[in-house]
Amino acid sequence: MQPEDLLDLSPAQLTRLLHAVASQRYGERWQTALANEFGYSRRAVNMWALGERKPPIEMILALHYLQKPVQLGEIRERAEAAKLAADALAASSAQLVEEATRLAASSSGARGRSGASES
């Protein structure tokens, strides 16, 4: 969604977007945090949250940029999952190398013993 697309949203859509983005960014007490960060009264933010008033244009544009931390959070979660998978794969690979080394050592020992008994 581009910033200019936000201008075409209905008040109800803006309210849903505001709630989703702000609660993701600020948590449960998002109205107070949003008001403090952008210099609006808590009452004004509450009216936007209830859909009683449409947020001003600058707040609508700020919503666009507030969405980025949400996206970065998703990327961070995926990166952490990938790291866990890579760590598990590395541990599994290390076990396979140890097992192969042990088998190779026991196999060469067995060949050495059978060669000694043949002489």
3D structure, described in words:
By secondary structure, the chain is mainly α. It has a domain at about 5-85. It is built from five helices and no strands. The chain has helices at about 5, 10-25, 30-40, 40-50, 55-119. α2 (about 10-25) crosses α3 (about 30-40), α2 packs across α5 (about 55-119) and α3 crosses α4 (about 40-50). The radius of gyration is 30 Å and the shape is rod-shaped. The relative contact order is 0.09. The model has no long low-confidence stretch (mean pLDDT about 80).
Name the average pLDDT.
81
Gap between N and C termini, in Å? 81 Å
SS content category: mainly alpha
Task: Describe the global form.
Answer: rod-shaped
Share of helix, binned: over 70%
Unreliable spans:
none
Radius of gyration: 30 Å
> Tell me about the biggest sheet?
none
In total, the number of strands is 0
Order of helices and strands: HHHHH
Count of helical regions: 5
Strand content: under 5%
